[in-house]
Amino acid sequence: MEIFENQKPLSFDFNESLDKAQISPNGFREYDARWLYPEEINKKGLEIFGYSLGKYISNSEGQGSSIVIGQDYRSYSTEVKYHLTKGLLTSGLKVIDVGLALSPMVYFAQHHLDTDSLAMVTASHNENGWTGIKSGIEKSLTFGPDDIKEIKTISENSHDYIPSNNGSYEFKEGIRDAYLKYLKGTQSVKRNLKIVIACGNGTAGAFAPDLIRSLGCEVIELHCNLDFKFPNYNPNPEDLTMLNDLAKSVKENNADVGFAFDGDGDRLGVVDNEGNEIFSDKIGLMLAEYLSEKYSSSKFVIDVKSTGLFFNNEILKKNNCTVDMWKTGHSHMKRRVNEINALCGFEKSGHFFIGKPLGLGFDDGLRSASMMIEYLDHYKNKSLSELYSNLKTSYQSPTMAPFCKDEEKYSVVDEITNKIIQDKKNKINVADCEIVETNTVNGIRFSLSNGSWGLVRASSNKPSLVIVIESLVSKEEVEIIFKYINTLLNETGKVGEYDQKL
């Protein structure tokens, strides 16, 4: 592929004169780092972040530790990687650069190259102007809140940073091919499947169509050419704009299924053969049912945004499988899957965490897609819409994200949490039902006596809250629960416009 053949190693100027460092403290998130570039972090700020990351890795893994790095296709990502790498080299790390990559390709490369750590330059599905760094030490795992706080502390004490080449740099070719070979494995698809692949002009366009074709499927490409301007929409498989466009193409091409990938390829969205979007938590439930037949007594992890249909599911109960609800966020979920030795973890945003023996434990949109192909191949002549109809009916809201300042969002969630807990104590009815349970593992998820529920939490990577609702009764009940939540939010005076409406 020409875009990979034309990549070149970076060449560093350690005598470059840069402006005073700018690093917004708000960029240090729960489990990764994201800033507007260059408004919130500039070139020298990136170098100090890289230096701080390197010092943290050296403190944990020893001097001269190795790190594998890659970047997505945004116009400025190579520049961001350049200055990040200068900081890593100044800290004394051995840097192995795999070039243009998906986040799961870099996770894979840490195993494949046996490096001590990893760093991926990506803002995933965020709008242009954002940059970010996903990083970690333990294989298949990315940093959690304590790690990020420590890196932030090191950066705040690095005002005397002077760039110098104290480490080593190598550009490693061929990792894309090794990654795609790993994904294909020994999978052989007997069913003739026509699949629409939507990439929103993001980096997954350089990977996903080739993988799906290698499995023996017919591929219809939708916005798979790489274009960092994102001329159609942001590559976000949780956004209805992308899913609706995919649905249209599925129906026009009489396809069996549509797959949507986010900007760095670690998430999957699915549209069935009739053009209906199936939220990823329900795709996860369908996969869990299928996998439970082959791997009885397995554990599955779901995030707090996921459907309540996982609980009391007859197939999972028959196969002695258990479901654990955990914090939203790729780092939290990866760690939980690893901690309890779960077979898989499913997050409503489309992150699927594939544990052993099916995968290496990290979130990978392409591996998730190949599992969906295996699922459809297994059920032979049954369409995805037929298979989906076997699930119990529930009515879900999209994932809604009203604006809330980074410095205020957590206190707003605390305020909402206290109000809902008080409403539970006071036996206040919502949609003519009492609040019977509250779960505060991540924000607050409150359940009603009829099994319906609502969630309010703070976004981990943007200045916003996250609102999700599921009714086991009707779409009208979803609207009633939303009105209850929205009234509480309006009372705070600190919540703005929604990114998408109910």
Describe the overall structure:
- The chain is an alpha/beta fold and 502 residues long.
- The protein has 15 helices and 21 strands.
- The chain has a 6-stranded mixed sheet with strand order 1-5-4-2-3-6, sandwiched between helices.
- A hairpin with a 6-residue loop joins strand 9 (257-261) and strand 10.
Secondary structure: elements and pairs:
Blueprint: H1 2-5, E1 33-36, H2 43-61, E2 66-71, H3 77-90, E3 94-100, H4 103-113, E4 117-121, E5 130-136, H5 145-156, E6 168-171, H6 175-184, E7 194-198, H7 208-214, E8 218-222, H8 240-252, E9 257-261, E10 268-271, E11 277-278, H9 280-294, E12 299-303, H10 314-318, E13 322-326, H11 330-339, E14 344-346, E15 352-354, H12 365-378, H13 384-388, E16 395-396, H14 406-425, E17 429-430, E18 433-439, E19 444-448, E20 453-458, E21 465-471, H15 475-492
Parallel strand pairs: 2-3, 2-4, 3-6, 7-8, 7-9, 12-13, 12-14
Antiparallel strand pairs: 1-5, 4-5, 9-10, 10-11, 14-15, 16-21, 17-18, 18-19, 19-20, 20-21
Helix pairs in contact: 2-3, 2-5, 4-6
